[in-house]
Design brief:
Layout (H helix, E strand, L loop, with lengths): L9 E3 L2 E3 L15 H4 L1 E2 L11 E5 L5 E6 L4 E3 L5 E3 L5 E2 L4 E3 L5 E4 L7 E5 L3 E2 L4 E2 L5 E8 L7 E6 L4 E11 L4 E9 L3 E9 L7 E9 L3 E5 L4 E5 L14 E3 L9 E2 L1 E6 L4 E2 L2 E2 L4 E8 L11 E7 L13 E6 L6 H6 L4 E3 L4 E9 L5 E12 L8 E16 L4 E6 L25 E2 L8 E5 L2 H5 L6 E8 H4 L13 E7 L11 E7 L2 E6 L5 E6 L3 E6 L6 E8 L7 E3 L3 E2 L16 E8 L4 E9 L3
Parallel strand pairs: 40-42, 41-43, 42-44, 45-47
Antiparallel strand pairs: 1-2, 3-4, 4-5, 5-39, 6-7, 8-9, 9-10, 10-11, 11-14, 12-13, 14-19, 15-16, 16-17, 17-18, 18-28, 19-27, 20-21, 22-23, 22-28, 24-27, 25-26, 29-30, 29-32, 31-32, 31-38, 32-37, 33-36, 33-38, 33-39, 34-35, 34-37, 43-46, 46-47
Length: 603
């Protein structure tokens, strides 16, 4: 392709412009390999509460997304990894590496402090400037028992916590303070019963707030926020439950509770704080008659006012359960169950009843807030991973990765069972090949890659392959048989077992085209590029020549003031090695209007 120098005037309506030729060669130095393999400084990430990004040797970026909080913002506005470990200091047992701080006391009958100083709102994607809200919590009726740190499994995986052994000596019950790093970190206060309760018993906590608050008690949980302001600060109380060691959290039962503000008074020289409340939990002895010890009950403090909305995404298992239906009915019918707040549970399950009918079908929903991805990034590949824990395969089944579309991104319900897609986002994983001691990876195809959102939540689902291959569903007729896989969800404490979505992509390095230099300019691409035009004159006619280098595959993105003819969609430029495109623009003073595109393939 030959460029001719133009010297004669070109008349366009009422203006005259001189078009000349200048070749603009843009070159970029290559960073050494040692410099490429590094963590990106957190200041480069827009909203990284749930992700971590590295630069690969190839120069591509890799972002690993989790369905939970894995980072918090410190006082300097820097993202840091959450570490919910208590450290014993001169003040007590301190935990300060989360969106809040906790000070557990030396002794069970002393107050604990929950300081909500979260600095980032994941729903509005903005800094929180409200003043911190402090919640003081004191277990009433406990003995002067010293606390110790202990590592164990409270039902959500191995974790460290502060325990006050036999804090309730008359009933042989322990008091526990634990920061649970689930979908969102929370301060949980457990009473662990080591013997049966002989009679119904009330357990009380004295709660004092650093400022006047407003509360809403819906008989399941309590919303708490600063009074009189539209504040992001709050200390909600999550639902109150009791559960035993046999069925664990999945077998939990709700309990009755009261959360009442105290009347300002002075008794025996002790003045009631104007911001004081009493939390009373009513534990019934009948529960213990069939329970397996130890038995647990909780009181959970959250760092958002609403105890049930703490993260922009979640995961859950939904199903049609305990029915007796044909394959088509159980597959296409309405969901009957939604298991949320899971740590380790079923992912998929298909089980039969008798004859040609089926009893259970379950699927899993996985949501990831992927809005940290740059809007102009080019995604090259992505992998969705689940850490397995158990499997059984009577029907020689496989697991398919598909889309999901729940009614909300934060609260999965039974009807979301009907929102799964049928387009496969990756090759199936046979249950026989499914690992129960490590990660299982679905490498996404083009359909999967196109489902990844750069501005919001990516919505994935896992279902049995034979739900999609409707003509090859397994034969039923064997009561008690089925195929299933189990694995870990985001409520599993820590991050080692999390569902995760890893996205590899390139970002376009801006190339500034200053039209004062010439009306015709050329660039040879050595990487993906985004173009920024400057100094265009109203009525000016400009030509940009874009060449692929010897490698090819370079992607181009455009600024918003470049307007395309027809439907307004940017053209797909040929990316083979050595290819070239000639694009003409007319400037209207603000925007650059496309006036013709010619593409050439190298011989």
């Amino acid at each position: 392709m030959k460029k001719h120098k133009v010297t004669q005037p070109i008349n366009v309506k009422t203006f005259t412009t001189i078009v000349c030729t200048l070749v603009l060669i843009v070159s970029y130095s290559r960073t050494s390999q040692a410099q490429l393999s590094k963590n990106i400084d957190s200041t480069e990430l827009r909203f990284s509460y749930n992700s971590k990004t590295t630069v690969l040797d190839s120069g591509k970026r890799q972002t690993e997304f989790h369905g939970k909080w894995i980072n918090y913002m410190d006082e300097n506005g820097t993202w840091k990894e959450i570490n919910p470990v208590f450290v014993k200091t001169v003040r007590g047992f301190e935990m300060d590496k989360a969106p809040f701080e906790v000070l557990a006391p030396f002794f069970a009958n002393e107050p604990a402090i929950f300081n909500n100083n979260n600095r980032y709102d994941v729903f509005a994607n903005e800094i929180i400037s409200d003043k911190p809200l402090e919640q003081t919590i004191q277990a009433i009726g406990t003995a002067h028992v010293a606390g110790i740190t202990e590592t164990g499994d409270l039902g959500w995986g191995k974790a460290q916590y502060v325990v006050y052994p036999n804090a309730y000596p008359e009933i042989q019950a322990d008091l526990i303070y634990w920061v649970h790093q689930g979908v969102a970190p929370r301060l949980r206060k457990f009473i662990r019963f080591n013997q049966q309760l002989a009679e119904n018993t009330d357990f009380q906590f004295r709660v004092i707030y650093s400022d006047e608050v407003e509360t809403v008690n819906n008989d399941k949980n309590v919303t708490v926020k600063l009074k009189g302001v539209n504040s992001k600060r709050g200390n909600g109380w999550d639902d109150f439950y009791i559960w035993d060691s046999k069925d664990g959290w999945t077998g939990r039962k709700p309990i009755r509770f009261d959360f009442e503000k105290q009347i300002l008074a002075s008794v025996n020289g002790i003045t009631t704080d104007p911001n004081e409340y009493i939390l009373t939990k009513h534990i019934e002895a009948d529960y213990f008659k069939t329970a397996t010890l130890p038995v647990f009950t909780d009181a959970t403090s959250t760092f958002y006012p609403d105890a049930h909305t703490e993260s922009a995404s979640t995961d859950a298992c939904v199903g049609r359960f305990s029915v007796n239906e044909t394959w088509a009915t159980i597959r296409d019918g309405n969901g009957t169950t939604a298991d949320v707040d899971l740590a380790n549970s079923e992912i998929i399950n298909v089980a039969d009843a008798t004859g040609t009918n089926w009893k259970h079908m379950r699927r899993a929903i996985y949501l990831f807030d992927t809005s940290t991805l740059p809007d102009d990034c080019s995604i090259s590949n992505s992998t969705f991973s689940l850490f397995g824990s158990s499997k059984y395969d009577y029907y020689t089944e496989s697991a398919s990765l598909v889309s999901s579309n729940p009614s909300t991104n934060t609260a999965i319900i039974a009807s979301d069972y009907g929102t799964f897609g049928t387009t496969k986002f990756a090759n199936d994983i046979a249950i026989s090949a499914f690992s129960t001691s490590g990660y299982n990876d679905w490498s996404m195809n083009s359909s999967g890659l196109s489902s990844i959102s750069k501005t919001g939540v990516t919505k994935l689902g896992v279902r049995t392959a034979n739900e999609i291959n409707t003509d090859t569903h397994p034969s039923s007729g064997t009561n008690g048989q089925g195929s299933r896989i189990e694995g870990y969800y985001s409520e599993q404490t820590g991050t080692d077992y999390d569902p995760k979505l890893v996205v590899n992509y390139t970002t376009s390095t801006p190339a500034s085209v200053d039209w004062n230099n010439s009306n015709v300019q050329e660039i040879t691409l050595s990487a993906d590029r985004s173009f920024i035009f400057t100094n265009g004159k109203s009525g000016g006619v400009y030509t940009l020549i874009i060449k692929q280098d010897a490698t090819g595959g370079r992607i181009v993105t455009w600024s918003s003031n470049v307007k395309w003819a027809g439907a307004g969609t940017a053209p797909t430029l040929t990316t083979t090695a050595g290819a070239a495109a000639q694009i003409r623009f007319v400037c209207d003073g603000t925007n650059y209007l496309e006036g013709g595109i010619y593409q050439y393939i190298a011989p």
